[in-house]
């Protein structure tokens, strides 16, 4: 299985980089993982709705340019479907069973994802109704994808 993790913005925090690197390394035993960072747009402090829409659209274009046509896209969005770790594992397993060997998880920037990215997505996933920094979500996502593969293999993992 090929997993892409597409995020907006450069990850700067060392502690997050270390955590993501650890789980990406572990996940490498189960899947080929590609991390893709696209440039974020600078947003003015008091951006208008039109400016925010334009920023999301520009970031969205960069995201969409990285997605292959045959890739199953899962957008991380606050309004997405909430799942347990077991449900996510089952979802990943079903995708593999039905020949979807390329999965892209997409994490937007501070303003979220554009309408075009949401339309391209096959499904959307929410980890919580709370708002989290998108850099932190990358760490949480990689850990949960790793956990999903462990669950699917029947391998032990702490609860």
UniProtKB/TrEMBL annotation:
Cellular component terms (Gene Ontology): cytoplasm
Gene3D superfamilies (UniProt xref): 3.40.1280.10
InterPro entries to which the protein is assigned, alphabetical: Alpha/beta_knot_MTases (IPR029028), RlmH-like (IPR003742), tRNA_m1G_MTases_N (IPR029026)
Major location (coarse): cytoplasm
Superkingdom of origin: Bacteria
Pfam families: SPOUT_MTase
PANTHER family: METHYLTRANSFERASE, RIBOSOMAL RNA LARGE SUBUNIT METHYLTRANSFERASE H
The protein's name: Ribosomal RNA large subunit methyltransferase H
Organism name: Halalkalibacter wakoensis JCM 9140
